[in-house]
């Protein structure tokens, strides 16, 4: 969650403002005419497996999970794929009273008595994990950050930071991000926590979790030690976890970006180096993790997304891991996978978050991530969306989140569409789709990207996802889609789900209400209703020799899913 610029709290207003008239006026008059796009899907031809990489989520603030809106949202995430959705969060070992704040959280899991002996208290962190599991979500358990009693920070260094939106990102530094004074105690903490989890939740449950140490140790905001210090921190924690649960799924290091020389050194260490904790060669590694972020800007009165930046980071991370023979087949999780780097940071360049720009970007980017994994021949397990909710904040305040005050944002509906995709990808093409190499090089700055991803479900349905995306958040013409299907066995029922500017969009409904900051009960119900995707049954397409054509319009920034059964 590294920020790419210092941004102003003044831009919260920009995040909820309608598109400037100047941006609308940039379009020529003829641009309102729909443009034709032909999409072809062969329902009888497999293009290989389609791993559900979208089922990972996360946030800086662990304590929000147990609050009213956090619990509500976790339930919705768990319903996407019960038992297979994972949540990663920072700050689970921080010292404090469990009060959530921006980019902060605490559990008071570790303190020491007057003689320096460890005192473990799992009450708060148990409550967080209990909340996950009760809602069908499992932990991607980050071991961090440093408890105050173990911190090696210089005397006088404040332990908790006082960062808030609008502050320079570097001000999140504090005693929490320092190496331990005693690595043996650090390793014992990881052991005791894992042992407790096994006793509380059972071995079979805990071995399904992911265990990972720290966050973005290649940047000074999260780690004040050296590379060697981090490798040592990692080894001691992983040794502690594996001592308590030899089958635990362990990995890391969740570096910022592809990780550069830091990642190279880490990969060499876990593959070939001497383990600091055990003295053996190498460190147990079941998965590898790095981060990838886009870089939106604000130009000519509108947001311009940076999808190319994110995909270049994904590609570089895959290539770095693929280049290490001992590790190239390990599962990979893109541990933070987002349009930009700071969920809690406002700014005019981040005004895409409430709208369908976020949802269409998500659909367009995930297709390319699957493609890059296939191109690099890596074992992609997950791409984690670092967005959750911020409790008791203004409505649609401009943070990167999945819901505002308990009401879903349009982007969450794209994950519901992903959840309806099957495990087998089908051969599909669109003459309106931006080629992978072009979007890698320069994003979507010319023609719009009208793309497709098709799959077959376990029960034989064909699910076709279509999106209409452009990097520039300005108005544009609809795409007139001709979806040509072949390989159909019999008469087909077609159901369509949509999310666009006027459908499954609580943000649009809220603006139409006059943007109330204290909606009453009736308005709240209306907003919840407006956020929901409702399936529409389309006229059954006429099938001839196993082929049929379905025609529909797709607005700019719209995403639709058609399910044929």
TrEMBL record:
<dbReference type="InterPro" id="IPR017853">
    <property type="entry name" value="GH"/>
</dbReference>
<dbReference type="InterPro" id="IPR049166">
    <property type="entry name" value="GH39_cat"/>
</dbReference>
<dbReference type="GO" id="GO:0005975">
    <property type="term" value="P:carbohydrate metabolic process"/>
</dbReference>
<comment type="similarity">
    <text>Belongs to the glycosyl hydrolase 39 family.</text>
</comment>
<dbReference type="Pfam" id="PF01229">
    <property type="entry name" value="Glyco_hydro_39"/>
</dbReference>
<dbReference type="InterPro" id="IPR000514">
    <property type="entry name" value="Glyco_hydro_39"/>
</dbReference>
<keyword id="KW-0732">Signal</keyword>
<feature type="signal peptide">
    <location>
        <begin position="1"/>
        <end position="25"/>
    </location>
</feature>
<dbReference type="InterPro" id="IPR051923">
    <property type="entry name" value="Glycosyl_Hydrolase_39"/>
</dbReference>
<feature type="active site" description="Proton donor">
    <location>
        <position position="216"/>
    </location>
</feature>
<dbReference type="GO" id="GO:0004553">
    <property type="term" value="F:hydrolase activity, hydrolyzing O-glycosyl compounds"/>
</dbReference>
<feature type="domain" description="Glycosyl hydrolases family 39 N-terminal catalytic">
    <location>
        <begin position="38"/>
        <end position="531"/>
    </location>
</feature>
<keyword id="KW-0326">Glycosidase</keyword>
<keyword id="KW-0378">Hydrolase</keyword>
<protein>
    <submittedName>
        <fullName>Beta-xylosidase</fullName>
    </submittedName>
</protein>
